[in-house]
Amino acid sequence: MINFIVGQNTIGKTLELTRKVRECKKNNAVLTNLIEDDSLKLEKYNVDRVEALKDLLFPDEDVLISKEKLSIGSSDPDIIVKGHGAKLEELLTLICRNRGFLFLDEPDKELNYSDKMLLVNFLSRVESTFNTIWIVTHYEGFLFLDNKEVYTVKMDETSSATTLERVLEGKEFEVID
């Protein structure tokens, strides 16, 4: 199951995601693009996730693995693979690390269309390898995934406290911005 937090800017989506990360970090190692975590460089890659990524690539592409990062390229020096940005490789490196809890804040930001599609397809293939996935997004492409729940942030008008509220199925496109 992938949980999405959607809605207009400045309603508190990232704040709610940060709360989820902090709560989870009390008892678990997490993957997130919200907080720098140098210990991730020591974390091994999840073999199932790396294999799922390889399955999505074109025949002339391969996943090149180093301790620092994954990259999409070719092990053949005569083949130049173009088209995937550094931001996508950074996200794929994070997602492929071997931890069970994933929290992403606007992972689609700064990605071109093909990289967004690769990210959506990749997450749909590897979601079962995670205990929990939470993603803040404005990208409607994520809403076509089957195994999802969508939330938006609601603010109490008297106290300004925010909470997550589940969006009814079929209403997701009305609240994403």
Written description of the protein model:
The structure is a single chain. With 177 residues, the chain is of the alpha/beta class. The chain has helices spanning 13-25, 47-56, 86-96, 113-126, 172-175; strands at 2-6, 30-32, 62-65, 70-73, 101-105, 132-136, 148-155, 162-166. A six-stranded mixed beta sheet has the order 2-5-6-1-7-8, covered by helices on one side. The chain has a two-stranded antiparallel ribbon with strand order 3-4. The longest helix is centred in the C-terminal third of the chain and has 14 residues, at 113-126. The chain starts with a strand and ends with a helix. 27% of the residues are buried.
Features:
single chain, 177 residues, alpha/beta, six-stranded mixed β-sheet, 5 helices, 8 strands, 22% strand
Mean of pLDDT: 89
Which series of helices and strands comes N to C?
Answer: EHEHEEHEHEEEH
Main sheet, how many strands, which sense, barrel? 6 strands, mixed
User: β content, as a range?
Assistant: 15-25%
What's the short story on this structure?
The protein has 177 residues and is α/β, with parallel strands linked by helices.
